[in-house]
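User: My advisor, Dr. K., asked me to get a structural model of this assembly before our group meeting. I'm new to this, so sorry if the format is off. These are the inputs:
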Amino acid sequence: MVSGQDDLSQSSVYWSPAIDDTGVRPSHFIGTDTKLSFISVSHIRIYKDSPESEFAKIAYEVKRDSQNSALPDTQVLIKTESSNVFAMDDLRDPFSHSYELLRGIKKFSYTYYKRDGNTWKKSKSWDSEKEEPKNSYPDIIELTLEVIGPQRQSFEGVFKFRPEIPLNGLYPST
Amino acid sequence: MDFTPAPKQPIGRDSSGIALFMVIAAVSVLAILVTEFTYIAQISQMIAFGGLDQTQAHYLAKSGLKLSLLRLKAFKQSKAIIASLGAGANAIPKSVIDKIWSFPFFYPFPTDIPGLGTTEKDAIAKFQKESSLEGKYSAIIESESSKYNLNMILPNFAPSPVPGPSASPTPNPPNGSNGTPAGTPNPVPTGFNADEARKSLSDFLSALLNHKILDDPDLADVYRDVRVDELTDTIVSWADRKYERRTSSSHDPVPMKRAPFYSLTELHMLPNIDDDLYNLFTPNLTAGLTQGINVNTIQKPTLKALLPMMTDDEITEFYKYRDSEDVDNQFQDSDKFFDYISKTVAAFKSNSNLLTELKESFAKRNIIITVEETFFKITVKADVNQASRTIQAWVTLGSGSGPTPQASGTPPVTSQPGQPNAVPDPGLKINFMRIL
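Assistant: The format is fine. Below is the predicted structure of the whole assembly, which you can bring to the meeting.
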């Protein structure tokens, strides 16, 4: 099988180009207004002898919900994950699975924050390859959400997520 | 006298007793409703308490992690203080300093320890009552340098030379913090031989397998068909992009990574390593940024595999000597280790060239003997009622000397935008961490 790892300069949605000739690649974090994708290190194997490590490709994305006739013009939040984590070809991945997490979304928006000295840099998109310093992740991800329920009840919320795992040394979360 | 017969009730129109049925039906419906409501209430309560327990377990595990980081910080600072004593540093046993991190920590504190007086037991009980910490946790810090590094098959991942015992060890700075799971490789070391390094891994795995079979003959049938050369072939093929694989790739469940191991769990993705083999090998392996193999923490299977010429008796004597409670026999440098084996292992005593050959062989295989620990694995497991949370973290001791990490209290960095703090160098670095 061809892994796609052979081209060291190649990057993918989840992996950046190799940083040396051994093939070590920084993981790639891409965030937009409605989608974010990253490599997780907290994947849990359930089945004996399954070919899975503790790494997994994870993506959260909102898409137009064409199946929800009761609530037209709403979106659905979908989580996609794959344990075939080191494969560079993300389009033809037989290990990829998608799950619908939340329906009836009217408004959905990610905002990314990075600490910059004593201030916070705010952005509506993030690409760890293009950030300065390179390969850095956001310190906080804010999600603004509005959801409509079946009885037309609505819910609005703003959630802030901070990485539990320190991305540089011991901080921020520990 | 004529009697007029009473008019007969039409058949099927007698409604006597209907009230009873209605009451029974109503009570039945009410019973079902009450049962349903009770059931839903109980389920909701269980979910709520389960969530509460999960949250408590999470923060208890984080407390355990912070306390473990504090212990590592104390270890680092103690070493620096002792090193500043100069000649007097040797008066403090190395094994005592290592106890700062190596001693397993449990909460609640066990009170059934021999020699513990009633006053101490009462003080512990009082502290635990006042702490209002629910649940229990264990925090274990392990040496990663006591294990064989899988990435030693790669020339660029040769460990850096280890400084002397008086110097503050400076680890190879890892680059894994910002999304790079592995460290920055070193330049290709002189004397490295890729074939020798692969053979070394093969020998190491064979030795682990053979010792397991010897210890437990019932496993001989299970592992009889294991081909270590094929195992090594796939492991090297997974990690070394320059390696030309000999075995077929038709059974590969996933494409070969062709890059260094970031985590041992990647072994699960190889075609011929099932969970039993994985559990056999991994306690003696690491994929971390170790400086070499630490002979002051090396475990028996690793020592046996590294020095197959040592007999069981000699290995027993080695641990008796090294871990003596009466005398500090921890090795102060690698020369002291080589000196010890040259004097106590029969194979070296009978052949004076064997030691030189061993050192040359180690150099070719990327094996560096070290006596200092700079790379640790912290495992914290917290339980609150039925909820459980585990945190694993791989930590490198750095060169910084910032303030001691707080074991409890407010984290040094705020979580809200607009209120950031400057981040001092804590002298420790979490290279890799997972919350399960």
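One thing worth pointing out at the meeting: The longest strand of chain A covers residues 96-116.

User: Perfect, thanks a lot.
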